[in-house]
Design a protein that fits this description.
globular, Nucleoside Triphosphate Pyrophosphohydrolase, hydrolase activity, NUDIX_hydrolase-like_dom_sf, mainly beta, Nudix hydrolase domain-containing protein, six-stranded mixed sheet, four-stranded antiparallel sheet, 10 strands
Length: 159
């Protein structure tokens, strides 16, 4: 995976999928964390981001997916668990090929790297109280951009 550490700092190359179906979005949450994110994972060395997203979804959801348009490229600078992150994330449209995954009552719990991870559907209009990260997604998911959008989220002071 394309992650490396230097002291308290971590660089992370992530890919995620915005899976929206009938007014709901699929989110994931790791046990012990107080926030939700779009499903996805880390890109491997020499792996393109579309392939990485398909691989991650096959591993985590156990089904094939269609990866659509690239919606956002997000450079994030934030703190998590006492570590400063510099994360570059590619966020694509995503559609699972397994019909059962598309039912809005569907949930899934997996163990990944020894950690319990939950997947759950949320109504788009009810995201305001959800601690969704990055936070811009609470509104942005309701109106996906027509062109790929580049964003910089800086929660850490410049060094």
């Amino acid at each position: 995976m394309l992650t490396f550490d230097r002291d308290r700092n971590r660089f992370n190359h992530r890919v995620a999928g915005a899976c929206i179906h009938e007014g709901h979005v699929l989110l994931t949450h790791a046990e012990g964390e107080n926030f939700w994110i779009l499903p996805g994972g880390r890109v491997e060395l020499l792996e393109d981001t579309r392939t990485a997203l398909k691989r991650e979804m096959s591993e985590e959801l156990g089904c094939e997916t269609n990866v659509g348009r690239l919606l956002w490229v997000v450079e994030g600078f934030f703190e998590l668990s006492g570590r400063n992150y510099h994360e570059v994330a590619f966020i694509y449209e995503l559609q699972p090929m397994e019909p059962s995954v598309l039912h809005h009552t569907w949930t899934c719990h997996i163990i990944d790297g020894g950690m319990s991870i939950e997947f759950r559907w949320f109504p788009l209009q009810d995201l305001a109280p959800v601690n969704l990260q990055p936070a811009f997604l609470r509104k942005a998911l309701q109106n996906s951009p027509t062109n790929t959008t580049h964003l910089v989220r800086r929660e850490l002071p410049r060094s």
